[in-house]
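ping. complex inputs:
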Amino acid sequence: MIKIDGLTKRYGAHAVVESVTFTVKPGIVTGFVGPNGAGKSTTMRMACGLTRPSAGHATVLGLPYAEIPNPGTQVGVLLDASAQHPGRSGREVLSLSAMLMGLDGHRVDEMLDLVGLPAAAARRRVGTYSLGMRQRLGIANALIGHPRVLILDEPANGLDPAGINWMRRLLREFAERGGTALLSSHLLREVEVIADELVVIDRGRIVAQGSKTELLRGAGTVAQAADMESLAAALKAAELSYSGDPRSEGFIVDAEPLVVGEAAASSGVVLAELRGADGGGLEELFLRLTAEDTRDEVLS
Amino acid sequence: MTAPTIAVDKLRMLPAVPLGRIFRVELRKMVDTRAGRWLLIAIGVLTAAAVVLFLFFAPPEELHLSNFAGVALTPQGFLLPVLGILLMTSEWAQRTGLVTFTLEPNRGRVVVAKTLGALLVGVVAVALLLAVAGVGNLLGAALQDGVGGWDTGGGRAFVYVLILQVSAIIQGLAFGMLLMNSAAAIVCYFVIPIGFNIVFSTVPALKGVAPWIDLGTAQEPLFEFGKVMSGTEWAQLAVTSLIWVGLLYLLGFVRLLRSELRSA
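pong. complex structure:
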């Protein structure tokens, strides 16, 4: 169980993560998804006690991460697969972790086996590894202490489709045994394959969360207005829940188009677009988020 | 497989990672990369090389124990602090700190383990230095008609060497923690004392206070192994060490505890 409660991180006046709240439940795989720079890594680092939050707090298994005794045996963490000393061998990286956690040396071989790193590769220096191999090593390092919880930042990055499929099976088995798994990705496709629940973050705020089937069903209505702020107010007045941000080009409202139209009309909001979110509300939302970020990059 | 859930009370009662284990891991991290191994090998080889060169090129009347120890001191004095610096900065430069500090979130304990590890290496290096100097002295008497004196000033020489090397290591650790960047820390470690020394030895008004402020000046008596240091000299050494070793280390420690670890 991971509980993220109102986590906020500001650098000066700029909030990288703003009031992020969600719970990661045991027994399922939760995907944490959003465009690059949306605040995923910062949130995960705060959950692991590496970055001090400006506000809010996080607990893992009921305790703040830093208070968990010998945390490697409770929580498997992979925050950056490339953060390894290039001069150390893969096997040595795992041996150090095993030693620190007080584990049997044979765990190292078990893990190498599990992630499919052959003995010859494990003896090589990490500096010679491909990103995919570093990810496998990082996952081995996260799993070595028999953890109950997994926190993985972009673990599928650099894996080929077969590798992603392997990770899906690995995490599924982990969850089926009752483990809690949170993994992040900037690619919806990747997370869609692996996760059961999704938490979508954009510009430091959660914009959607729920089960994958629920979010991907795309129930609801896409609504856009010339004045998005007043549309937001109108939807709130009509007690309709919606996702999306006033800065974006449209909301996805959890209601039939007719209901949304009535809500807009009763507040005198001029709609620019109103239609059923046919298939893939999340996908549209995500595409829009990603497109906006791309546009921001082009403009800046 | 560990049970998927655990009660918070039970979780809290589980044993923490013992300091001894962190210490052993940190020691191992010093030798399990090529860079680390070569640094230790270089310390050993240069210590021996300095003694050998001195043995063959110094005049016979200078071939006695404290001189042998003195020449072996220089290469160690350069490399031991580098070891200390790299021990700290590698956690940031290679970002291995992301793993180190998630496996042991109490960063203070990691720093203590690293410091003890560096000090152990320092003590072993000093023992090696004395052993090599002793062998050099024997060979000097046998091969080069050296005077072969064994005077250590009643063991003072050992204490002086130890003080010098331990200060250098702790200062190295401190610069590593303060700057968290290998190149910057190494440059500052060597340049700042030189700058201070130049200022204090050239500005007339400062010359008088130099031994109270400049570590290099206060440490000068330590290099004369036979010398009995006066109470004032000890006091000066204590004050400058407190500033340049103790305070610097403390500032570095605080910085390390507070700084944020970033992923890519």
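The domain at 2-213 of chain A is CATH 3.40.50.300 (Rossmann fold).
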